[in-house]
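TASK: fixed-backbone design
INPUT:
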């Protein structure tokens, strides 16, 4: 792999047991903390908080550290169904996440083509062992109907969800993934690959060689977390 085409960042954030706060993301090669989550860059400007307060955690007894971090904003998938960002999209899953918009003609088609090729490699494991999540940065245009048509262009299967919804909710979800941008044209060409159960999160260049991307996704799918280290 070359630095020019492929960069991996392990985003492992340790959740402190005393105060459930998130620590700094660890560098590549360090062991991820249990229940760790990807931390937005400190310099990143936060979007306005959702008006419905769905970004707020429930009571401490009801929320896991991961839910407190990611929050549970309401989004809408390509079938028009309302889903919760943490409870329905991330919880207990290994996910590959990217940001896009349907009228993008530059980086979005090749990124989603790579998602399609990764989907082909994983076959029927998609929807069981790994899930794909594409989040629009242009909800005013990207309605569920439009996104469903777009998903069909890339032969998206049952394990690949396209998400739209209220802009404030989408912005908040993207912010928690370190992917929030104020202008849709500035969205990032990065795949976020995470195992919510073990807390291992990685970033990869979305237009890298597919074989290299598959290798990273496989490593996150197969991660055993602390259980694997104890053996």
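OUTPUT:
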């Amino acid at each position: 792999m070359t630095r020019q085409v492929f960069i991996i960042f392990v985003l492992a954030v340790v959740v402190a047991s005393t105060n459930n706060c998130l620590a700094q993301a660890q560098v590549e090669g360090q062991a991820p903390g249990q229940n760790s989550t990807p931390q937005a860059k400190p310099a990143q400007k936060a979007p306005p908080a959702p008006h419905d307060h769905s970004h707020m955690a429930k009571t401490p007894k009801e929320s896991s550290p991961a839910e407190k971090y990611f929050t549970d904003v309401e989004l809408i998938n390509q079938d028009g169904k309302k889903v919760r960002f943490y409870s329905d999209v991330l919880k207990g899953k290994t996910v590959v996440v990217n940001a896009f918009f349907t009228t993008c003609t530059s980086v979005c088609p090749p990124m989603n083509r790579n998602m399609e090729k990764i989907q082909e490699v994983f076959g029927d494991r998609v929807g069981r062992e790994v899930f794909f999540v594409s989040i629009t940065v242009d909800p005013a245009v990207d309605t569920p109907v439009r996104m469903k048509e777009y998903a069909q262009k890339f032969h998206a299967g049952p394990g690949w969800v396209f998400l739209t919804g209220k802009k404030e909710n989408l912005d908040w979800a993207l912010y928690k993934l370190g992917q929030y941008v104020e202008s849709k044209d500035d969205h990032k060409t990065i795949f976020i690959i995470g195992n919510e159960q073990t807390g291992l999160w990685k970033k990869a260049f979305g237009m890298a060689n597919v074989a290299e991307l598959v290798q990273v996704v496989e490593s996150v799918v197969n991660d055993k977390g602390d259980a694997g280290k104890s053996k």
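COMMENT: Residues 108-122 form the longest helix (15 residues).
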